[in-house]
Amino acid sequence: MEKFIIQGGNKVKGSIAVSGAKNHALKALAASLLSPQPMTLTNVPEIEDVFRLLEMIQEIGGKVTKKRRGTYIIDTRNVHTSSLPKELVPKLRASVVMTGPLLARFKKVVLPHPGGCAIGRRPIDLFISGYKAMGAKYRFRNGVHYFSAPNGLHGTRFVFSTISVTCTETLMMAATLAKGTTTLVNTAREPEIVALAEYLNTQGAKITGAGTSEITIQGVKELSAGNCEIIPDRIEVLSFLYLALSTKSHLKITKCDPCTIETPLQLLKDSGAKIAIQKKSITVYPWKKLKPLKVTTREYPGFPTDGQSPLTVLLTQIPGESIVEETIYSDRLFYIDLLNRMGADITMHTPQHITINGGTPLRGKDVESPDLRAGIAMVIAGVVAKGKTQIGNIYQIDRGYESIDHRLRSIGVRITRKRS
Ligand code: EPU
After folding, report:
1. In the chain, what are the helix, strand and coil shares in percent, each to the nearest 5?
2. Which protein residue's CA is at the shortest distance from atom 25 of ligand 1?
3. 24 CA distance to ligand 1 centroid (A)?
4. Which residue out of 96, 140, 162 has the highest number of ligand 1 atoms within 8 Å of its CB and is therefore the one to mutate?
5. Do strands 108-112 and 137-141 pair parallel, antiparallel, or not at all (unpaired)?
6. Residues labelled as active-site residues
7. Cys-Cys with 160: which of 7, 186, 339, 342 at CB 3.0–4.6 Å?
C-alpha cells in the first residue's frame, strides 16, 4: 500500500500540462472492440483505470502494443470471447462500456455485475433497457448479466429516463453496427461523447447529433482501422485551477481546452477570480478577495460532479458562506468529514447539500482517499494545510491522475510517495 506525504502551507508556481482525459480514453479503448482492424490511440493517460481496461482487452484475446508513453496500438482481431473477466470487472465501473461493442460485434456478451462504488448507487438498468430495445435478450443469474442478439442488434428509438454519460456512449457504439437507424433521445452531451462520435465517424460510422440531446446512428456493416487522439482532461484542468486558487498562487495550465469548462470558469469569474483564458491554456493569478459561491452539480454543460470535491477545498478558503448541492450521485459529499478534521467548517444538511463557512485555516492530518475525486481534494487540502498531511488509499488517485506526485513536485508541491 502506498501513501502520499505532503508538507503543505506553500504556494505552487510555474506551469503544468494537462493529460489526456480518462473518460475519453476508456471509451476509445472500448471502441477498439468494434472492428477487427487495429486502432492507434495517442495522448492516452498512463493511469490505473486505463491499465485495467487494457488488461481486460488482453484477457479476452486483444493485442496491446505500447509504442511510446501515451501511444498504444490495439488489435482486437483475435478476441475469442465476449465474457468479461469476473476478477477485473468489479475493479472498474467503466468496464460496462465494453458491453456495447462486444454485443454488436459478437452478438452476445456476459458481464459480471460491476457493483456500486463509494460515490453512490451505480445501477445498469438503462443499459439493459437500451439493449432490449435494440432486440437483445437478457438474463440475470448468480450475479452475472447475459445479453444475446443471435440475429444482431437492430435500430430503435430509445429515450433515456435518466441522462447517463457511459450509457449514451455504450448504446451509441452498439448502434454503429446495428441494422437500421437508432435514435437516442435525452442523451448526455459531454465533450468526451462528441470526441468518441467523431472518432467512430472517421472509422466509417454514421453518427450525427453527438453533443446535443438527440443522437442518430445509421448502422453500417463494419468499421475500419482508426487513429484517435485523446482530448485533454477537463476535470484535471479544474483540479489544477482549484489547487492554484486554494493556495493563492500564480499558475499556468497548458494543453487544455477551456471551451469544455465554461460553466466552472464563469463561476470563478463571478467569484472575482483573476484568470486569463487563452486558446489552449489558462493562467491563474493570486487573489486577495473572492466571493463565496452557490454551486449545483449538473449534467454537461452544467457544473460537473467530478469537479465538486476539489472546488469545495477552494470554498473552505473563501471567507463567507458557500453552498454546494450534489445532484448526480447520492454519496459524493461524505469526504467533508475529512476536510472538517483538517479545520474546515462544513455542515451537511442532507447527504446532497452542504454549506461551507469558508476562510478557516487547514491543518495537516492523516486521511484516506475515499474515491478518485475526493482523493485529489485531499491532495489539494494537504497542499493548503500547514504541516504534514498523510493520504492513504492513493490507488484511488492513481486511477485517474497520471504520475500526480511527480507532476505536482514540478510546480513546487512538497509531495512524496511512500510504501507503507
Ligand atoms: N444511472 C442509472 N442507471 C444506469 C446508469 C446510470 O440510474 O443504468 C444513474 C447513476 O446512478 C447516476 C446518473 O445516472 O445517478 C448519472 O450517472 P452516469 O451514468 O452519467 O455516470 P457514468 O456514466 O457511470 C461518467 C463518468 C463519471 C462521472 C459521470 C457523470 C466515466 C467512466 N465516468 O460516469 O466519472 O462522474 O459520468 O458525469 O465516464 C470520475 O471520473 O471520477 C467519474 C466518476
Report:
1. 35, 30, 35
2. 165
3. 13
4. 162
5. unpaired
6. 117
7. 186
C-beta separation of 355 from 314 below 8 A: no
Q: DSSP string of 273-320?
A: --EEE-SS-EEE---S-----EEEB-STTSB-GGGHHHHHHHHHTSSE
**pLDDT tens, residue order, the chain (420 aa):** 899 999 999 999 999 999 999 999 999 999 999 999 999 999 999 999 999 999 999 999 999 999 999 999 999 999 999 999 999 998 898 999 999 999 999 999 999 998 666 777 788 999 999 999 999 999 999 999 999 999 999 999 999 999 999 999 999 999 999 999 999 999 999 999 999 999 999 999 999 999 999 999 999 999 999 999 999 999 999 999 999 999 999 999 999 999 999 999 999 999 999 999 999 999 999 999 999 999 999 999 999 999 999 999 999 999 999 999 999 999 999 999 999 999 999 999 999 999 999 999 999 999 999 999 999 999 999 999 999 999 999 999 999 999 999 999 999 999 999 987
CA 129 and chain centroid, separation: 24
Sheet (strand 366-368) strand order: 366-368, 387-392, 2-8, 414-419
Ligand 1 environment, Cβ below 6 A: 22-23, 26, 93-94, 121-127, 162, 164-167, 188, 304-306, 328-329, 372-373, 400
Output the nine-digit C-alpha cell for 343.
Answer: 479545520
Cell of 123: 445501477
Length of the chain: 420
Give the residue carrying C-alpha cell 446495428: 178
Residues 6+ apart with CB under 8 A from 261: 234, 237, 238, 307
Helix (H) or strand (E) run with residue 367 in it: strand 366-368
Amino acid at 92: L
**In the block, residue with C-alpha cell 491499465:** 51
